């Protein structure tokens, strides 16, 4: 991003701000210094979000760096009179059962010299897409001392609250630098568009907000569901997706796709007392046989005439204890509801001890 | 009393009588082959098909049903106690939520209910999916003290299911088996929810 500079005033003084890719960062702020606000300490994993977004289903974080410069023009010659390097932590959080999200901005200057260090900064929260600003607060803070964190806090309300509504929230901050004897300049922190709010999650009547690209997990406990866990472990080990963030499953809410997946995988399943046909990837995903591919199975699965197989395409079938199969439906539906997993959202299937 | 027929989408061989949409499946008691009450609220009804639609008639009663309904040739009839701590018991597809119109089945003065499930068509051979709704269910719900599950009319399928569960039981758990990171995530979310709610309260 090119530097944004003010024109020099009648005394030839001006200032610039510029986005900089963050290098080495100082320690992250903790919540104790920010108790005057309802601020929440950003999680430790924010440290890894340098120039990229890291998230969970209800939190998102990105760290950027800003360069602030003061200058003077005399006799046609431009001279830098001070510099400051600042870190910005965009930390946004929401709730699966609230239509409100928060966007904190944590700021510190970690190096600099000259007149730039005599300045101060203040923030104004911005909003866009299907959200309105409820409040925002970031009063003027001095750039010095270095490594002193300051926090701005803003809250936003989704407008996607009517039954069936879905909408994204875009939030941001304008950070204005003021300095005695220099013109003010504003850094427009890029819009943070991570949260989707909805009142369209089947089985829920309340609105809520999530980071839709984060793949939440449904857990299959080996202790509780040994047949199911065994089948899915072997299916994933054979190359089928779903275990990792890199290769998640994606949910379908189309009953026709769901039924087609099931019919193609288990329509000719054998009749075994106390057992029912389990297919992986699950029928409620777009990775079922409606997307193409062939069936595979494993030893002990009681599925005659189906070969073993490898690779990421197709499905695995196995006869498993019927109540474990029934439970699987409840496990997935509960996760879809809790995590507000809508059509085409990614999710993971994780086998645990 | 409230009553209606619904086409309900089946998820992995079940549909729900859920309390406020919650599915605490870890607490399900599978010992009966037709209805699995969840100790933490609600129940799952086991169907013959794994995926597709079944027809369900649900009716809230104020008094215990005396006679077995004979409006259909019900092949299986089971009565069980279902708790509703949130007192919002509803018929639901696990995948798609309550069918319209959404009819609440609970009253305000109790959280214990008796549910009589009547079923026909569950035993159709080799029917693993269905586009048409061949299976039918009648659910009668009334307030009542807790009592053991009682099978009023059985079938060979129901007996086989109960024997299979007895051979490899999956006892109900009061807590889900989940990894530590899931527990930690839940605690973090509680904190974030509180921060957002605190903001609402401050207004």
What does this structure look like?
The complex is a heterodimer of chains A (353) and B (203). In chain A, 12% of the residues lie in helices and 42% in strands. With 353 residues, chain A is mainly β. Chain A folds into two domains: 4-210; 216-352, no CATH class. In chain A, the strands form four sheets. In chain A, strands 1, 2, 3, 4, 5, 6, 8 and 10 form an eight-stranded antiparallel β-sheet that branches. In chain A, strands 7, 9, 11, 12, 13 and 14 form a six-stranded antiparallel β-sheet that branches. Chain A has a three-stranded mixed β-sheet with strand order 15-20-16, covered by helices on one side. Chain A is elongated and about 90 Å long. In chain B, the strands form two sheets. In chain B, strands 1, 5, 6, 8, 9, 10 and 11 form a seven-stranded mixed β-sheet that branches. Chain B has a four-stranded antiparallel β-sheet with strand order 3-4-2-7, with no helix packed on it. Chain B has one domain (3-177). Chain B has 203 residues and is α+β, with helices and mostly antiparallel strands. The longest helix of chain B has 23 residues, at 180-202. The radius of gyration of chain B is 18 Å and the shape is globular. In chain B, 17% of the residues lie in helices and 33% in strands. Chains A and B meet through β6, β15, α2, β17 and α3 of A and α1 and α2 of B.
């Amino acid at each position: 991003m090119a530097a944004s500079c003010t024109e020099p005033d009648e005394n030839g003084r001006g200032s610039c701000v510029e986005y900089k890719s963050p290098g080495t960062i100082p320690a992250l702020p903790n919540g104790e210094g920010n108790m005057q606000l309802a601020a929440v300490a950003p999680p430790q994993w924010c440290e890894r979000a340098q120039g990229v977004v890291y998230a969970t289903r209800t939190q998102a974080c990105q760290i950027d760096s800003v360069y602030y410069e003061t200058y003077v023009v005399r006799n046609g010659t431009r001279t830098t009179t001070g510099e400051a390097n600042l870190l910005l932590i965009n930390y946004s959080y929401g709730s699966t059962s609230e239509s409100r999200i928060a966007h904190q901005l944590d700021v510190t200057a970690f190096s600099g010299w000259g007149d730039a260090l005599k300045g101060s900064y203040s923030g104004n929260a911005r909003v866009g897409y299907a959200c309105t600003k409820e409040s925002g607060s970031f009063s003027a803070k001095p750039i010095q001392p270095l490594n002193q964190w300051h926090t701005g806090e803003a809250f936003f309300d989704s407008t996607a609250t009517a039954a069936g509504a879905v909408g994204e929230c875009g939030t941001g901050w304008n950070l204005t630098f003021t300095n005695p004897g220099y013109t003010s300049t504003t850094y427009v922190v890029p819009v943070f568009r991570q949260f989707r709010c909805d009142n369209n999650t089947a089985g829920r009547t309340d609105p809520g907000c999530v980071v839709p690209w984060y793949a939440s997990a449904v857990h299959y406990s080996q202790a509780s569901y040994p047949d199911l866990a065994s089948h899915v472990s072997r299916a994933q080990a054979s190359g089928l997706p779903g275990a990792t963030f890199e290769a998640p499953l994606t949910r379908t809410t189309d009953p026709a796709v769901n039924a087609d997946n099931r019919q193609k995988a288990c329509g000719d399943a054998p009749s075994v007392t106390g057992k029912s046909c389990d297919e992986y990837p699950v029928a409620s995903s777009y990775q079922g046989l409606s997307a193409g591919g062939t069936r595979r199975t494993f030893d002990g699965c009681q599925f005659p005439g189906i070969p073993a197989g490898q690779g990421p395409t197709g499905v695995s079938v196995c006869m498993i204890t019927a109540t474990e199969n029934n439970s699987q439906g409840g496990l997935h539906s509960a996760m879809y509801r809790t995590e507000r997993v809508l059509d085409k959202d990614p999710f993971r299937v994780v086998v645990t001890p | 009393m409230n009553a209606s027929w619904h086409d309900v989408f089946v998820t992995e061989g079940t549909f729900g009588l859920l309390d406020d949409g919650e599915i605490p499946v870890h607490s399900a008691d599978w010992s009966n082959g037709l209805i699995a009450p969840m100790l933490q609220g609600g129940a799952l009804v086991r169907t013959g098909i794994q995926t597709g639609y079944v027809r369900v008639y649900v009716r809230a009663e104020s008094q215990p049903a005396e006679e077995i309904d004979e409006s259909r040739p019900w092949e299986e009839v089971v009565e069980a106690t279902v708790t509703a701590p949130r007192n919002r018991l509803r018929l639901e597809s696990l995948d798609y939520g309550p069918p319209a119109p959404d009819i609440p089945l609970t009253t305000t003065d109790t959280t214990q209910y008796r549910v009589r499930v009547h079923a026909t068509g569950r035993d159709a051979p080799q029917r693993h999916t269905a586009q048409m709704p061949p299976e039918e269910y009648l659910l009668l719900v009334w307030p009542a003290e807790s009592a053991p599950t009682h099978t009023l009319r059985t079938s060979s399928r129901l007996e086989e299911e109960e024997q299979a569960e007895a051979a490899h039981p999956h006892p109900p758990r009061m807590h889900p088996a989940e990894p530590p990171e899931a527990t930690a995530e839940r605690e973090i979310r509680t904190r974030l929810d509180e921060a957002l709610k605190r903001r609402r309260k401050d207004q």
